[in-house]
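User: Thanks for the earlier help. One more: 4-hydroxybenzoyl-CoA thioesterase. Can you show the sequence and predicted structure together?

Assistant: Of course, both are below.
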Amino acid sequence: MARFSMPLRVRYVECDMQGRVFNGHYLTWIDMAHTEALRGVVGGIQVLVDRGIDVVVAAAELQFRLPAGFDEELVVEVALDQPGRTSLRSTYAIRRGTDVVAEATMIHVCVDATTFEKREWPDWFRDEVAAAG
């Protein structure tokens, strides 16, 4: 299992009128962390596209554990499972220090970079994820 992390500081614009992070921003952070994890594994999304594949979200699940607020320092931890035939499961923990603020699971599907039709993960991608784990 490949593991990565992405630090962030909560911006004022990400907070609601109660001074807490608005729920939609968590998925944005998760998407950002997923992009950074893929950068660590294969060099970035553009490398995937240049090699003929892309990823699309098939499912997302998010659990809120504790509120986060303006100017707090958080870390989004990412773990990538070994790819299935066409899917890639990733899990996330958003932490403030040792406290878990939120947890998530995402399923991405491999698609052809031109037609966006679902396809199997190529061997080179499987090898890169295995090597990163």
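User: Great, one quick takeaway?

Assistant: Residues 24-42 form the longest helix (19 residues).
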